[in-house]
Fold this protein.
Amino acid sequence: MNDNFKTLGDALSEFSGQKKLKNSVAEVRLVTFWKELMGDLVDKYTESLYLKNNVLFVKVGPDALKNELLYSKETIIEKINLKFGSNLVQKLVIQ
C-alpha cells in the first residue's frame, strides 16, 4: 500500500486518540449511560451532568435526592468505571 494512504481504522484511531475528542465522546457516552445506571426518576431530576478532568459533576434538583446520591457516591463511581472499563470517573461532585 502507498505510504500516503492509511486504512480507515488507522485514521479513525488517530482521530479519536485526540484527548479532547476522546473526553467528549466519553462524556456523551456517560450522559447516555446515566439514565440506564440511575433510572428514570434520578434522570428526570438531573439538571446537568458533565465530566471534567475525571471529575463527574452532577446537579440535581431536590435536596433529598442530593443526600441520597451523596451516600451512594462510591457505588456510582464504581459502576461507571466498571461499565467503561477504565478509571473514567475518579471523583463525583453532587451539586
